[in-house]
Amino acid sequence: MTIGIDVRNELLMILDANDIVRLKNYPYNDQGLVNDEIRERAWPILLGINRFLDSYLNELYKQNVIDWMQLDPYTFHKDADQVQKDVDRSFNTLYNTSSCYHDKGKSVEDLKKRLFKLIMLVLKAIPQSNYYQGYHDVALMALLHFSDDCSSFKFLYMLTLKYLRDHMMSGIHPTIVQLNLIPDIIKQIDFQFYLTVQRVNPIYALSSIISLFTHEIENYQDVSIIWDSIFLNDDPQLPIYLYAALLIYYKEDIIMDLTEICDSSGEINFDFDVDIVHSVLSKFIKKNLSINSIDSKHEVYKIIQLSFNLRKSVPMSSLKSFKHIYKNSFLKCTSGSLTVFQSLADEYHRYEMKQLRKKKHGALIKRNKNNMISLLKISAGVGILGIILHVTFKQPTRFGIESNFAKAYINLYQSIREYI
């Protein structure tokens, strides 16, 4: 009997006994939750879907399906067009690597229709939710791991509220402030490496964070094991630590790539070109954890262990950038409810209004400054005109201008002065 079978049997016994406490405290191992048979049963429990919530979500799913059948999909939600475009690009890698997928015999086109419907139903079920590119990769994992569409819906619904709500706002700012935590963590662990990482905006981590690594890591099993670690620890902060752990784990490879591209003499001075740093950091995960990696499972396990150590040694609340995280962000409030989602949406709306006021105030200052410069120019011009007209009025023949004509200009000059 292999270790894998031992772990599987133990987990099945825990699930059969409905021992939720024991499941949540199950020690993490390099196999995660072993296979999709166990994940399909364990993940909803780990996300907090109890029998009461399960009943509610069943009814919500049924009602949304009725609405779906009655409405045009493209009027069902405002983001339908973009969802369709992203779904059409799905199933390029994860589908091909899923050996445990229940509907493997069905056509890809049928699976795309199910994925589109799944995303639309969840968006409809969460008021004020906004689709973002990368969410379809997350939804695809939900579709791959569950045997029926209702179960996929319930799982994705709770996953969205608890682990993805910051990314579902109408703007990207709640997500962007999260990314700044990554170099802050690196700074506490490896200051020399931080000097390289901090040279660029951490936007390179965006696709991994918003997709829970499904966009960058192509191996289905590797992503599944990463999700196991997140759910077993019930920790929405863990993806940030996981990304920091990835950077640290592949530090030597990153520096080597930077050195080769910069054609360095071999001496590492960490003073690399900004564009090159961004390029390397944007690609290092796919390069090192590609679908063809031989020891990817073993490496993923070590990276997860490193993320646990980072979380323990560098509490997120101790980081300077943590104060900029929204109060209702999943990094600060782990509750996964529509009320918290609405509170976050309200919080972000206040931020938007504040930024709009700042923009208007800045535009007003600029306009006043421009007006002042214009008035000064007019004043100077009027002053010169006054001198010329004064001389002209005194000695009209000197300039070849009749006295009456000069008087008219004097009257115009006095009118302008009164206006100024």
TrEMBL record:
InterPro entries, per the entry: Rab-GAP-TBC_dom, Rab-GAP_TBC_sf, TBC20/Gyp8-like
GO molecular function, one term: GTPase activator activity
BP-aspect Gene Ontology terms: endoplasmic reticulum to Golgi vesicle-mediated transport
SUPFAM superfamilies: Ypt/Rab-GAP domain of gyp1p
Keywords, in A-Z order: GTPase activation
Domain Rab-GAP TBC residues, every copy: 33-234
Alphabetical list of SMART domains matching this protein: TBC
GO cellular component: endoplasmic reticulum membrane
Entry keyword Methyltransferase: no
Protein name: GTPase-activating protein
Source species of the chain: Pichia kluyveri
